[in-house]
Each structure stands twice: as structure tokens, then as C-alpha cells.
Amino acid sequence: MNCQTCQLKELVVVPTEIQDVLRCILHTIIFHRALGLVRPQDVECEHFEITYVHCGDHEIEKKIDEKIDQFVGWVEKHPNRKGQVCLSFYEVKNKHATWFGNKIERLYWEQWYINLHVLNPKSHGKSHYTKAPVSTGENASEESSSRHAALESSLHEVLFQIIRFANEKKTTFQLYKTLRLYHFHMRSQLQVHQTPLLVGMLMCLRGCCRLDILPCSVDYKIMQAINYFSEPGLYSVVNEAEEKGHFVH
Amino acid sequence: MELGSGSSRPSDQESEVSLLGGPCTASGPSVNSLKLRSIYVSVSMPWRFPGLTRNLWIEMATSPSHSSPESAIIEQVITEFFAKSLHIILESRSPYVSSRNYSVDQFMSSPSSSCSSSSSMPRDKWFNLALRDCPAALENFDIWRKSNLEPLVIDIILIRRALVPDVARPLGGCLLRNFSGNCDLAREPKSWKIVERWIVQYERHKSSSSKNHKDVRKCGTKNNGGSSCSSETAFYKKTYKRYIILFRSLYVFIRLLPTYKLFHELNSSGQICPLSLSHRISSSIQPFTQEDEAKMSQFTFVPIDTPRGRLSLSVQYLRTLEDIRSEPSAPLSVQFILDYVGSPTTDPFRRLKSLPSAPSSPALVSFTRQHSWSNDHGALASVPLCPSVACSEARGICCNPSLCLPSLIHRNDHSPPVISEPQNAAVTHKNNMSFDEFWPSPFSPTLSPSSPAHLPGQRSPNALQSGSSQIDIAKAHPITASQTQACSSEGKLQIQMDTVRYGNYQTGPTIVKGFPSGKDDTEKLAELPSSSTQGPLSRSPSGLSLLDKFDDSGFACPFADYKDVTESCNRRSPHAVVGAVVQMLMTAAPLRQDLYNLCRPPQVFMDESLNPCVQYDQANTEQSECPASTSETLASVLLKSKTAAEGLEELRRYKEMKESILKQGASRSSDVDNGPRSPGNNDQS
């Protein structure tokens, strides 16, 4: 299957806004792709007047926060850089036994690229583009507020972009054969002098939540594609799980 | 209509069918035919849609035209598509009935599911999006269900109501709540505007050779060997996931629209806002005007094809609501809510059962409470009684309720409200320092105005309970306490009495206001300790004469430690008292007028029938000792602007006082009839 890629609009953020922006975007994407039974929870952004939706899974939320913290840590060490967070959905193929071990093949069917331009507030006075002198006092606050308003508007656009992309026919068709539980891979590509630095993460929605830094060392349970409607026996099991408040396996 | 089980046992099916109303209920041969059909469906169905089994019997019974159970299932899915759409939309647009942000535990224990069998799924889990019940959605959809899949047009309407205070509003009338509550809408001007229009449509294909049919057949050929029915089923299996994603998108999208922000504010804010959201559901689309069309944006979700049609969901919404929401909402502190003030369940009413009853029961409404923060206490004193105000019941002190009551409890005014003694109004009392800490607002939502205020410096918080509370109030800060008490109790404002009395604490003259109970009250009042060496009690001889006058005027001080006063209060119901107070407040004169009046000589306010305190001022020659300075100070105090933060702080204190009063109610109930406390029990600091 072809891998659908969605490049989200670049957002200009300051370090204090990274967590809020990434949480909003990542949870929105996952909410569109975790097709099991969910009990949505509304979450208010801390820095913006935007309400996004959680799946209601604490493990996912915890892992997302953990990886966002790693990204933020990297940003602190490399300020004023453009970063990219990639959220990939893939299907795990059967392991291929080789001389050197089992090789897990992943078939990516969808990737979301979250582009962030992180500005360092300390050096932000010198505009990245115009090299204008550092503005002080009221001008700085006005610039900050205007930048914040622009970011909020851009974040709105990104969320609309996610909604449109998630509902495209060519995208949703891929889901017919995909897992009820999705493996997805999130990595941060941080270009430092054009040298990509990968901070990998693998996350699974329930059942296979083994969080590791690099994917190649993880051995995940292979979830077979489940035809949701064809196996009443399985459905009864699934239904029980739903009744108990779990995701459907 | 809800069936609790999808059991395949014929007997269960029969019983379920027989329980159905409408066309599902039948007798004789038709029942048998239903039984057969039900049995057929349950046995032949190789797979299950969540929750579909539950309603399938209904579909089979009501739609005998279904050629196959799969078709019925498809129709059911379409019906649930409409229901889910309506649910999501109204859940985030209908204030006070939203079910969002529930906890998992609540969901698990929620009785929303009507099914008793684990094999079926309640409605709210359709499309794997578990939502709590939304009464508005359920109610409206049941009505729409009969429309046979006509377009579902949901208009979200923004209603703006003008805040028109109605002074003649009777007790129990609307007190400027959020207008989606109990207000009499017909009496208030309002305008409305459609801010969103959601359209859910199912367009049936006219041609059998549509693309969808090709896709369906292709799907069927690929999976099931070419059966048309099974191909439809397989196709629907694949499209069901698209439904899931669409509703996820809808759930997210609806929270990004401008109207959601207003909905969130209305749902979460305690402010009384002239704006409210409502909805209208219809099956026809009424076009917007060109002007409205230009202001609106449109978003259409990707339509989902079905074997026999296409489901589409679109929305037109206003890009911005700022121009509509330009009118600021009134702060809650300005408004009075009858439930809080006039609630019969609040203890202060029982506390004040001994207080003189007011002839009427005004609604506890004051639309000018905010002015109390900036009101000078002298203005309170200067305000002639307004007959419409409850205080006028007792020919109380202040016609302007906002002047009378709040000024007494003004946290920043360290001088008591000088009703009868404008020159003394600005006198500061050493208890004033603690006044701010303890004096709750009588008009706070959590503090019934009938509740005696917790006076500052009061060591015994329970003192503010009816008779005994009157005494304690007089001890600490009688003016404010009495004012509060007056406005809260049986409709009589004893503001002036205590105000004057308190004002004399500093200046010396005893301003013992008349209690309607008579001389006994005067004597009791004379026993009230003062915060200063000079107290009103020391002036009791001069005050006693005035008390008689007050007694004639029917003036009553709820905080007076007079048995007769409390006994007279028992004659009136709490509602009547509160209503009288509110009536007085609503018909009170503007603050500024009172402020002007305050600066005038005391003689201006002479009114035997309405302002006994002023009368007393005249009679009290000692009051003239320092009129000018007092008036100047009072004017400065009156003119001092109060910030919202200070007002809120005082409001908090009022609430604390109310709470303490309520707690003391039970323990002090027996003290009401025991008379005043002795002066030796003065708790003043």
C-alpha cells in the first residue's frame, strides 16, 4: 500500500509553547486514527483558546508527553532551529528470520510531519528575517502578542488540515486493512546543520505499549488485521472489552 | 423503543416485539408474522453491528419493505448516523445539557444504556464514539426519526436578551439569571441570530447503475462471491470505518468553531450573560440572506457513499461572533438571585423569625449592587425610603437598596453608613478594621440577605442569629450588620438604626434607633456594648425617645436585641420579608442621587415615616457637634471608587459571614427568645 504523507503547516513557536502545540496536534491525529471505542475528553490548550480532544487513554497521553519532553530538551540544547516531528502509522509484517536476527518489517501507510520553527525568546529580538534591532518595552510585548495570535490562527489551520486529510478517501481506504490497534512511530527530525538527528519513539495503542527510544531494538507483538464485522466470536470478546472500558482489540 | 437484548431465542424476541409501541404492536396474525420475521433476522444474521441488533426488530416490524436484513441494517446505520451527528452537535451547543468531559467511571456507571444484555451496545457507543446521553439530542431525534430520513437541519441560534430590570417583578420572578433558565422571556426584548447551520443529508441514488453500486458489486465479488446482499454488507463494513473517522473529525471540528467558545463560556461561567445558545431542528433548509451568507463560512465533510445513497454532513458558520458578543455581560455581583436570597431553606430566615414582618414580600433583586462598592455610606443614610423596596415595609432606612445595604457592608468604608447622621457617616470605628474581614455581602449568591452578617471582631460568629445575632451585630458593627439584616429579614431595613447607633460610637451621641418593638427594645439596645468607650448605650436616654418614634413607624432592626422585634418578625414569612426587601431595592432611587443628597444637610432627609434615623438625627442635638467634618469625610468616602477586586473581596467576606451565620443558626435558635445579651458580653475587640 502507498504511504500517505501529510506535511502540516509550519508553526513558529517559542519553547514555552512547544508542549501545548505538539500535544494539541498529536492528540488530534491519534484521535482520528485510533478507531477503537474511545471516550473523548476535551482538553483546553494552556496558551491558546483551542479545545482539542484526547482519546482518553492515559498511557498514550503519558507517552506523548514523554516524547514531547525529549523534543523540548533537544530544543533547549539547540535553540533557534527548525524541527520536525513525524508521527508514522505502520503495519508490522512478519518477522523475517535472518542470520543476524529477526527483522521486523514495517509498512508505513501514513505519516504526519509536524514542522516547528522554534524561536529562542532571548535572541528573538533580532528578527530571523529582517534582522531588525531588538525591540524593547511595549513594542516587544506587541510583537509577542501578535506572534501569539498568529500562532493560534496557524494552529487552527493545522487542525483543520488534519481533519481534511484524515477524511480523505484515499487515506481512509488504507484503514480498511489496518490494525484496530495501530502501531505508530514518532520521531523527531531536528536539522542541525543539515544533519538529521533522530529521536525515535515507538508507541502502540494498548496491548503493546513498550516504549523504547529506537525502534530497531523493539520486538512488538504483531497484531493481525481484524475484520471488525466478520467474527462474531471475536466480537463478543471485543464487546466485553468495550463494556469494561478498554479499547477494542 | 429500546430493546435490551439481541437474544436469538424466539420467545425473547416475541416478548420484545410485543413491547414495542406503534406499528410494532399488533395482534393476531400480524404478531405472528412479526415473530417469524424477527426469528429469521436473528438466526440469519452472521455478523453484528454494534447496537444494531437492538433496533433491528423495530426496523423489521415498521418497514416491511426491507428486502433483506442487510438492507435493514444499512438503513439502521444511516439512522444512527443522523442520531450521532445530532448528538455530537447538540452536546457542544446546548448549554447545561452537555455531557462532555465525563469521567470513565461516570460513564461506566451511567444509566445511559438502556440495554441489559452484554451482547448489544447502547446508542452512545455507535461508531466507536462513546458519548453520554444528551437529552436535547435524544428528544429531538426521536421526533425526527419519524421523518423517514429527511434532511436534518440544525440551526444553532444565538439569542441576546436585554437586561431590563423590572422593578415590579413579583416575588419569585426572574432575577437576571442566564436566560436559558427561568426568566420570563416574553417580558424581555431579545434578538436572535443563526450562527451555525448543520445539515445532515442522505441522498438516495436514483439510478441503480450508480458508481456506488459498482463499488458494492466489486466489493461483493471480491469477498463473497458475487451476492448482491453480501456485497452491500461487505461494502458497509468498509464504510463503517469512514463513519467512525467522520465522527471523530466532527467531534474535533465542532470545538474549533467560534460558537464553541461561547458555549464553553456559558456553560462554565457563572456570570449572568444576555447571550444564550439555542437550537432549532427542521427538515427544510431556509436560505440565508446575502448579507448573512457573506459573513458565513462553509465546511463540508467528505461524503460517504452507501450502496443506495450518499451521506453528507456540512456546516455553515459565522466566522466571528465578536460583533454579536460586543455587549458585556453583567457581573454576578450586581445581580441577585432569588434562590439564594429568598430561599426558605436558608437558616437566616428562621433566625430572623422574631424580626418584625414586612407587609409585602419583595423580590430580592438589586440591579445596582455594584454601585454599593462605590457608594458612600452617607448616601445610604441620605436615601429616602423607596416605597417599592422591601425596606419600606418597615419604613426602613434606605430607599435605594443598593445604597442601603451594600454600603453598610462596604469593605472599604470604615465609617458606618450614616443614614440618620450624615455628619457621622464617615466616622471610623475601630471595629471597621475587622469589618472588612468578616462582613459578607448580603447580596452574594451564597449569602441570603436574610442572613445576618457576621460582624467583624465578633468573637462569637453565631451571634448573628435572630435576636442574639442582633445583639452581637450591634456590638461589632451594628450598622452594616443591621443593614444586612434589614434587607434580608422580614422586609424591614434596620439600617438606619444601627447605622446611626454605630456612627455614634465614635462621636459619642447615642443613636439608638427605634425598634418597632417598643421601649423594651430600646432598653435592650441600650444594653448593647459599643466598640468605643462611648457607645450608643451611653446615650440611651436620648435614644429611647426616638425609639418610640421608630416604633410608631414600624421600623424594626433585625439586629436589635429586642424580644418584641424578633417576635414581630415571626409574624411574616421569610418570603414576604425577602420580597419586600427586594422590592425596595428594585425601586430604590439611583445611587448618585443619594450621593448628592448625602452632602445636603441632614434636614433634607427628614421624614418621619420613612427615615426614622434622620428624625433621630434632628432630635439628637449632639449630632451637630461635628457635622461638617463628618459630611466631608463621608463625601470623600462616598466618592471613593471601589475596585472590582475590593468588591470581590468584600463579597467573599460576606459569604464567609453568611456561612458562619448559617452554622450558628442551629445553635442560636434557642437564643432568639432569650433576649439580648448583657453588655458584659461585648465581644468587640
From TrEMBL, chain A:
GO biological process: autophagosome assembly
InterPro entries linked: ATG101 (IPR012445)
Keyword Glycosyltransferase: no
Pfam family, one: ATG101
GO CC annotations, alphabetized: Atg1/ULK1 kinase complex; phagophore assembly site
GO MF annotation, one: protein kinase binding
Keyword Transmembrane helix: no
Key words of the record: Autophagy
Region of interest (Disordered), residue spans: 124-146
Protein family membership: Belongs to the ATG101 family.
This protein's name: Autophagy-related protein 101
From TrEMBL, chain B:
Single GO BP term: piecemeal microautophagy of the nucleus
Cellular component, GO, one term: Atg1/ULK1 kinase complex
Stretches the record annotates as Disordered: 1-23, 445-469, 508-544, 659-685
Annotated Low complexity bias: 535-544
Autophagy-related protein 13 N-terminal domain boundaries: 78-320
Keyword list, A-Z: Autophagy
InterPro entries membership: ATG13 (IPR040182), Atg13_N (IPR018731), HORMA_dom_sf (IPR036570)
Entries under Pfam families matching the protein: ATG13
Chain intervals with Polar residues compositional bias: 1-10, 459-469
Domain of life from the UniProt record: Eukaryota
Name of the protein in question: Autophagy-related protein 13 N-terminal domain-containing protein
Organism encoding this protein: Musa balbisiana
